[in-house]
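Field: COMPLEX_INPUT
Field: COMPONENT_COUNT = two
Field: RESIDUE_TOTAL = 642
Field: MODE = joint
Values follow.
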Amino acid sequence: MSFQGVDYYDVDGMLEPEERAVRDMVRGWVEEEVMPIIQRHYVDKTFPSELIPQMAELGFLGANLPEKYGCAGLNNVAYGIIMQELERGDSGLRSFASVQGALVMYPIHAFGSEEQRETWLPALASGEKIGCFGLTEPDFGSNPGGMLTRAVKDGDEWVLNGAKMWITNGSMADVAVVWAKTGEIDDVGSIRGFIVETDRQGFSARDQKGKLSLLASDTSELVLQDVCVPDSNLLPGSGGLKSPLMCLTQARYGIAWGAVGAAMACFDEAVSYSKNRVQFGGKPIAATQIQQIRLAEMLTEITKAQLLVLRLGRLKDAGTMRPQQVSLAKRNNVNMACECAREARRLLGANGILVEYQAMRHMANLESVYTYEGTHDVHGLILGQDITGHPAY
Amino acid sequence: MRSIVCIKRVPDTETRVRIAADGVSLDPSGVKYVLNPYDEIALEEAIRLKEEAGEGSVTALCLGPKEAAEQLRTALAMGADDAVLLAGEPSHDGLVTAKALAAEIEGREFDLLLFGKQAVDDDNMQVPAMVAELLDLPCATVVVGLEVSGRHVTARREVEGGHETVEFDLPGVVAAQKGLNEPRYPSLKGIMSAKRKPLEEKEAAAVESSLELVSLSEPPAPEAGEIVGEGADAVPELVRKLREEAKVL
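Field: COMPLEX_OUTPUT
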């Protein structure tokens, strides 16, 4: 039986026909193209890059950006649904699409010149070019404003120096959107975005070794040593820490949806397993109270999370969504997915530790998702500040 | 190359269908409907022929309830140019469906008329050949290979134990079998553009049926299996039972 999703509250009934069509298409694609290969990639610690041409062809990259740049021009709900279905496959696959769309294409669209948009967006949408996003540094994670990467103007060029860490797509990228201070090291307002082609002299990327999570994803460290880019590579509309944070809001929005997909995959697997696994005198474990409560908790939390992101998407499409609302959804939904994955793994007993089943892969992946793009705790503090007016971080 | 592709809205192959209280129809509650998988193959072929020719059109035609507009939108998302919904209930009688489709197709100009080889709900396998007969057109069913050269068509058919190759001149009818091609996923751009493509809705021609559906019944529940033993020692007994009791060897 192929994956049917989870829809206890007829959330489908609140989707437009084309939103359902998008969901059905991506779900079918993940079932046919991703599920048969994802375990092998996870064990081999490789990103399934053979999927990139299809993802591009079908329009998954920057799907909510305008058609004039070769994108699909979807609304934000349909975009979210894509993220949900991709992460139902694997968080690494969704991370790839999030970075390409929300962290590379979005800033070029939002802060780039028309010439930069026309140069880069069609190439990124078609998968001809792969992008990465350089904000986080070895010593500046939750506090990106402290970054040490500098860009110094030298005639018609900028000279960049610094190191970026935890960069998804870093080693396979053709282009990096790099954030650097153009003024004094304590001048957060001087942060600007730069388009840096990765074949420029002085640019290097190194695969992050030793990961126990997001194994089917390219995570790298970037080093920029006297990398020169022309002034035309500066994103003219970028200015201050607000610019990269706007990108993160886009990515976090997709993550809030993606987490629902990972949780659905775990719930689906747990229900199926519980009905087939027979113990204690011929009854399936689905007939036991403890597993029923487990499943009931999972279903309840998934349903709440679904309603949360759908409403968030409608607000985003109406143009009234606030970043703090994204924090609430990212925080709640990823935490929810972590819990679902852990409970599903436990329900599966010893089988739950095997890669043949999905639960532990999702469980391990989601620990990264819990931490990246604003940790669970930092999003709590964003909400705390919004409630009280007092910044506590 | 101008093609018309007839499609049908059918229950998802993974849906567990139940017989309704009247005993002669299916209970629609909780049933997810999809585009008939063989019709997807027919659509894919029509779209490829148009793409290869660099000109022409693909029209998707469906006899079904108003909800079948969803399957026509899928056809448009895959790449059909326009769609026609003949509103009406699909009949259990293939001839009724064939006459209603033929009445609509008769007035249209086209080169190739495509169908899936069968609908996966009633498995009648009647409509493509009947429409061809009603329109007096050559017809190749269960087609796994198709070549069009000018007005000349070579179709490779699946027959018991092998293949058969037939030729005809356009216009003609082709019913697609699995293996003819691998249908594409509708792209996101395709899904978005499908909203803007024309979908005409009209009443299906009224046709009387001379075939009465008497009853529907569920297949018998499978009987419990038997374990004859374990390991190689069990093989002779298993073979004996398969030969003498199950009579499958």
